[in-house]
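Deliverable D5.2: sample structural annotation.
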Amino acid sequence: MDQIGQFLPLILIFAIMYFLLIRPQQKKVKEHQAMVTAVRRGDQVVTQGGLIGKVSKVKDDNEVEVELAEGVKVRVVKTTIAQVTSKTEPAKAD
């Protein structure tokens, strides 16, 4: 019985860390993955580098083409998209 009493504070600390640190981080990662998979043509995005542009083409599962200015297009890995600032209808093909 005395040994359980010695481990009880350690178990409580782990439980508190789980609910305050680990669980919210896992939830945030899931939300980011859902946002990244929902990115489509015409969405305005912000990359982790701070670049703001419009998605002009979704190339494959982990890469998109982002138009930063008129005629300036860059390839971006989807996971580096920090946020989608405006969700729009897909742009029409030229």
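Annotation notes: The chain has a mean pLDDT of 89. Strands lie at 44-47, 52-60, 63-69, 72-77, 81-86.
The annotation will be released with the project's public dataset once the embargo ends.
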